[in-house]
Write a structure and sequence with these properties.
This protein has helices at residues 14-21, 27-34, 38-41, 58-62, 80-93, 102-125, 147-163, 168-177; strands at 65-72, 133-137, 140-145, 199-206, 216-219. The chain is α+β, with helices and mostly antiparallel strands and 220 residues long. A hairpin with a 2-residue loop joins strand 2 (133-137) and strand 3 (140-145). The model is unreliable at 1-11, 101-107, 181-194 and 210-215 (pLDDT under 50).
């Protein structure tokens, strides 16, 4: 089990070790989701790996089938389990005193920044900076990696119609009224906001023998 930099297994790259154990995982999923926790939580994962594996054990993830899809995120059904956790995160980052909540204490302003950074990217381009990772189980979806990106997208989805009708100055005021603050004093909303897209490219892990409807699918 990998626990620290002195481990004898560290002669190989963490990516290679993970890929050997999870050959079904696309490279980008390993790099963006799994590899950052490799040394922090040890390898191979035990139980749910401190919640990183979304209440599923390692054996479960060895059997999923990943697909790259284009989905309308407003039309799919999300699991109640994920909604509860996600709502708690949203509540934390929109509070004036972020440290009053569990997520605030865990990630603090770093977590809020991880939400705001993709928000500005989506505001200017209409799309995620990179695909989020979803788990589809019993025909319900959960975001297993990319919750901050999803929160940014959802925030803009709720105000997209109004933003499209406002001047750049009013857009800035609207965002401030929503308690969205800027990291730089001279930052401003891009004058040319592209059309916001409800349809996004995502990476989905499916239990074997499950299919998806109303989407463009690419098996990985």
């Amino acid at each position: 089990m990998i626990k620290n930099k002195n481990s004898i297994f560290m002669d190989n790259s963490s990516f290679e070790i993970i890929k050997k154990d999870l050959p079904n995982f696309p490279d980008e999923v390993i790099k963006d989701w799994i590899e950052p926790y490799y040394e922090k939580h040890g390898w191979p994962p035990k139980d749910t790996w401190n919640g990183v594996l979304f209440n599923e054990n390692f054996e479960f993830w060895k059997e999923v089938e990943w697909k790259k899809e284009t989905l309308d995120l407003t039309s799919i059904k999300f699991s109640n389990e994920w909604i509860e956790v996600f709502s708690s995160m949203c509540f934390a980052y929109t509070r004036k005193n972020i440290d009053d909540t569990f997520f605030g204490r865990q990630l603090g302003e770093k977590g809020r920044t991880r939400w705001l950074s993709p928000l500005f990217y989506i505001l200017e381009t209409g799309f995620f900076p990179k695909p989020i990772c979803l788990l589809c189980k019993n025909n319900e979806f959960s975001v297993v990696d990319g919750n901050h990106r999803f929160m940014a997208w959802q925030s803009l989805a709720k105000i997209n119609d109004e933003l499209g009708k406002l001047s750049p100055e009013d857009k800035l005021k609207t965002l401030k009224d929503l308690k969205i603050s800027y990291s730089k004093g001279d930052a401003s909303v891009n004058d040319k906001v592209s059309e916001f897209s409800k349809t996004q490219e995502v990476l989905v892990a499916y239990q074997k023998n499950l299919t998806v409807g109303n989407s463009t699918t690419q098996t990985l």
